[in-house]
Amino acid sequence: MPISSIINIARRALTAHQSAVDTIAKNIANVNTDGYKRRRIDLPALNSNGLRDAGFTQDNMARIRQRFIENQLYYENQNLSKYEMDRMIMTQIENIFGEPNDSGLINVMSEFWNSWNDLANDPESQYARTIVHDKGVVLANTFNRIHSDLINLNQQICNDIREKVTQVNQIINQIKSINQQISANYSDDLMDQRDLLVTELTNLMNIDTRESANGEITVSINGQIIVSNDYVNELAVNTSLENGISITNIYLSEGMRPININSGEVGSLIEINNRQIPDYVDKLDTLARSITDQVNTIHYKGYNLDGTTGKNFFSDNISGARDFKVSDDVYNDPSIIASGGSVDKPGDGSIAQDIFDIQFYQFVQGSTVFDFHNSTVSQIGSKVQESEFLSRSAEMMVQNLQNQRDSVSGVSLDEEITNLIKHEQAYQAAARMVSTVDEMMRTVLNML
């Protein structure tokens, strides 16, 4: 073999092993970098003449990844983010209702009905009337508070949806930019950066991805493309008011086509905002109207100590929990409160007793007031427990997939150190070959 060939082989070996050492050093430096996938050097193979093919090039560097596991991880991330957001928001709703605390509606209703029982036992007592008055005001305030807190949460969620849609639009525009850069000049670092963006996107909404042979990625939702190569179709938010509740829907800006986001943080927020909260507000309104109708119907027929009759205990034309309140007459003068069914029967507490007995009647969609409200509270509690269970299960699944991904794509310091020693020794061997050839040539020249 000519000496020049030996020198050429040694030179390429030096280049290849130096590149391998640099790659290993980069892996070690990024061992804790989020989203980094380790690089591996595939050294050129020997050709049929026993010589190395063209020396090391960028094509000999491989970015180690497992696409199947990554796609599964994207899917599970969507679920995990949804369940965690479900748990957080449903816990807030549970706290708004405040059961089974003293401030909860069940305890307040109990005290309200019990005050009527006390009045029925002492129908001529002004003190008992004052207690009924006060408990009625507390009941009204509790309805008002729960309704107000639900509406405030509704507004907060609408704002959160807008902010997260803004994040989505920023991410897909960044993905578009990286697509363009990869198309012009492929880079493993850009691929890592884009994978992080896709993961961030899966935390927000349900998406599908498809990667082309040249590394560009297409992202779609419900079969509708939102980013591909240099194309982007941003999301738009539309909010409308229905029965005092803000309903938010999301569209594609191009053509204003509606899209169904049913996973990720945005999917959770939309479901709770557009379905759960309106349902709870409707049930609260139904309960408030039912109590108003039943109490007023009986109280209107009753008499107070002065013989006054034809007065409502609660205000007229109450639309629901928002404007539920004690009537102005009763609020300003508790003596207006009726207790008897006639004016000529001292000690008559029949009206107060009838109002007390209302709590046992099934007049709220076939249920008593307590059963109806308990059903709503139980539904909320079940949603909280369900979201907690599902989030724990999804978290375990994500962790398992991350471990599988890291076993393939993650950096192992032990492995990298071993490879580093191997390539450093190979580099030293190639350097020794150059030194040996140099000595041989000097010897030959000295012999001339």
Protein architecture, described:
This protein has 448 residues and is α+β, with helices and mostly antiparallel strands. It has 2 domains: 96 residues; 327 residues, no CATH class. The chain has 10 helices and 9 strands. The strands form 3 sheets. A 4-stranded antiparallel beta sheet has the order 3-4-5-6. A 3-stranded antiparallel beta sheet has the order 7-8-9, covered by helices on one side. A hairpin with a 2-residue loop joins β7 and β8. The longest helix is centred in the middle third of the chain and has 59 residues. The radius of gyration is 37 Å and the shape is rod-shaped. The two termini are 21 Å apart. About 3% of the residues have low confidence.
Helix and strand topology:
Blueprint: H1 3-29, E1 39-41, E2 61-63, H2 67-97, H3 105-121, H4 126-184, H5 188-204, E3 208-211, E4 217-221, E5 224-228, E6 231-232, E7 235-242, E8 245-252, E9 257-258, H6 264-299, H7 328-332, H8 350-357, H9 369-409, H10 413-447
Antiparallel strand pairs: 1-2, 3-4, 4-5, 5-6, 7-8, 8-9
Helix pairs in contact: 1-10, 2-5, 2-6, 2-9, 3-4, 3-8, 4-5, 4-6, 6-8, 6-9
Give a concise summary.
By secondary structure, the chain is of the alpha+beta class. The chain is 62% helix and 9% strand.
General form: rod-shaped
Radius of gyration: 37 Å
Determine the oligomeric state from the structure: single chain
Largest sheet: 4 strands, antiparallel
Strand content: 5-15%
- What helical percentage do the residues reach? 55-70%
